[in-house]
Amino acid sequence: MSAAFLxxxxxFTLIVAGCxxxxxxxKDERFWDGAEKFVxxxxxxxxxxxxxxxxxxxxxxxSRGVGVTIASTLIIALLIFAVQLFAKSKNxxxxxxxxxxxxxxxxxxIALSNDLFGTAxxxxxxxxxxxxxxxxxxxxxxxxxxxxxKTKKNFAGVLLSLIKNPLILSVIIxxxxxxxxxxxxxxxxxTVTYFAAVATPLSLMSVGAGLMFILQTDKTFAVIYSVTxxxxxxPITAAIxxxxxxxxxxxxxxxxxxxxxxxAANSYILxxxxxxxxxxxxxxxxxxxxxxxxxxxxxxxxxGV
Length: 305
Description:
This protein is mostly helical. It has twelve helices and no strands.
């Protein structure tokens, strides 16, 4: 537990630093928007391409690990719908509970994968992201199209935007280069390394800057319920599936780590665009991020990773 906590501590220190900087020093929203675009379109793709091209994969284990995260996500999604049959949450609040229960923060995922498992962890996390970005986004759009109150999204447009996602594209490019046994060297490697080095600190500070401390008292239960699903129910589900498949090693640890992550910050944007309960969504994102600083090392300690 202490090893996991010590690996997580710098991650959440940077998140807190970003939160403080946004409120005390760098209050201009345009700075943080620009910083996140650099991370999304340049720095994280550089990190993924560099580490995946260098990696050696056992694809059978990777496939089973990804299968565990997909299955865990679908089980939690079905559980949310089953509970809704009896709980009868308001439609807009239900969309926030759903997104909070199944979506993950890719910035924290890559950063923790790097701190806990090094370049091999980053490479594996990139492959997991390529699958899970598609699945979680499609599920979220389906729910918001059905229960949200604003303009519905066209699924062809959603799929096109996912295909153009820079993280997915960088994984595809890197896997192609890896298959060709290509390796960066010399000045090219140093340049990509410089870009990659910026990814983690800037992304985590951007996560902190995006936190919104809003909590409506009448939505407290919805927030706690959604955060519990994501940070406790999904890891338990994943741990059971990993045990049933007898999957161990770094791939299993990355699969478990994925299921412990807090909700994605861009869930708020999607909620606002499609008529979800964006205020509750913001609360779920913030409190799941804060709570995960405790739940992630506890889950790893209990499971024995």
